[in-house]
Design brief:
Elements (H helix, E strand, L loop, with lengths): L2 H33 L6 H26 L7 H19 L2 H25 L4 H20 L4 E2 L7 H4 L1 E2 L2 E2 H19 L1 H11 L1 H6 L4 H27 L1 E2 L7 H11 L11 H20 L4 H37 L1
Antiparallel strand pairs: 1-4, 2-3
Helix pairs in contact: 1-12, 2-7, 2-10, 2-11, 2-12, 3-4, 3-5, 3-10, 4-5, 4-10, 7-8, 11-12, 11-13
């Protein structure tokens, strides 16, 4: 079997996985619509999409990191601290535009710090971001004295609650960013470098790729996307809350892995990530409508996380076996 045949086989496998995930989403929607008729109402559908948008926007950055073989466990805490910074600047300057710009820049700064610790100091991103998770949450509590900060300026909240042509602004941002990030990953040399580095970092270095620079850039992009989701959340809540985003990273990572992105890097598609986000969003919304306790919802989220990791491990083992069999056949 030649290289082109191997590539075609892998494409078929990924397409089948996405099709199965999409089928699961359709079945789940059908079940929820039967169990609770309000599920299919326009208001509820828009509510699901608005909720999913925050996870998806951050998830695009997490997917890029995971394609590199990296991870970020600090997004929930970063969400809280970025919102605090943005809303504080908003109330001080009375400028929603300046607050949003500063929020994005602060998110980029956090990504830069994580990138420096991971890339330059050669620390493991899992450990770095686990530590940052605690640091950022503590900073959010210290800065606010564990009190929420109310938004005092109109206009900023539209980022989370506004509509354009009847569509929630967060949903529009989610869709636009999906096409932008997907284009970058599939149609640009930068995207190809991400896959190459995630597939084999040492080989990428030997091929002349600027591995450290790409990793730095992706950490910064991920930080900015997390910052955007943070400001959307604060707009929805009409405040910045130091305890916002608790457990957020678990939901996002679960959806990304469930969507087919390998935790070892180098494999995955953004379309799968989007379907994974919608699947978890529909499940969470349906359980809420059915008045299932939030504690049971947490149990479900944890179980799905374990299931997603198991699926990823199975997928990697299957891919490795197929690759070995192809190599043997070629010989």
């Amino acid at each position: 079997m030649n290289n082109s045949s191997i590539k075609k086989t892998f494409r078929k496998i990924f397409q089948l996985e996405e099709l199965a995930l999409l089928l699961a989403l359709i079945v789940l929607c059908a079940v929820m619509s039967i169990l609770t008729p309000t599920f299919v109402s326009k208001t509820n559908v828009l509510n699901i999409l608005r909720q999913v948008s925050m996870n998806a926007i951050t998830g695009y950055g997490i997917a890029m990191l995971m394609l590199l073989g990296e991870i970020d466990l600090s997004t929930g805490s970063a969400q809280a601290l970025v919102a605090i910074v943005a809303v504080s600047i908003l109330n001080a300057t009375q400028s929603p535009f300046l607050a949003i710009v500063c929020g994005l820049l602060f998110g980029a700064f956090l990504g830069l710090v994580i990138g420096f610790l991971t890339v330059k100091l050669k620390l493991i991103s899992f450990i770095v971001t686990l530590g940052m998770q605690t640091i950022l949450r503590g900073a959010a509590m210290v800065v606010t004295n564990a009190q929420s900060i109310r938004i005092q300026v109109p206009g900023y909240g539209n980022l989370g609650t506004g509509y354009f042509l009847g569509i929630p602004i967060p949903v529009i941002l989610m869709i636009v960013l999906f096409f932008v990030v997907n284009y970058v990953l599939t149609k640009t040399s930068f995207g190809r470098q991400i896959f190459a580095i995630g597939g084999n970092r040492e080989a990428a270095k030997l091929a002349g790729l600027k591995v450290d620079r790409v990793r730095f850039i992706v950490f910064i992009i991920s930080g900015m996307l997390t910052a955007l989701s943070a400001m959307i959340l604060s707009g929805r809540l009409d405040s910045a809350q130091p305890n916002a985003g608790i457990g957020f990273e678990t939901k996002v990572i679960s959806a990304v892995v469930l969507g087919g992105v390998s935790m070892s890097g180098g494999r995955g598609k953004l379309t799968g990530v989007m379907i994974g986000m919608l699947l978890l969003g529909v499940l969470s919304n349906g359980l809420t409508l059915l008045q299932v306790s939030s504690f049971w919802q947490d149990i479900c989220t944890g179980a799905i996380t374990i299931l997603a990791v198991y699926i990823d491990a199975t997928r990697r083992a299957s891919a490795a076996r197929k690759l070995n069999q192809s190599a043997i056949t070629t010989k």
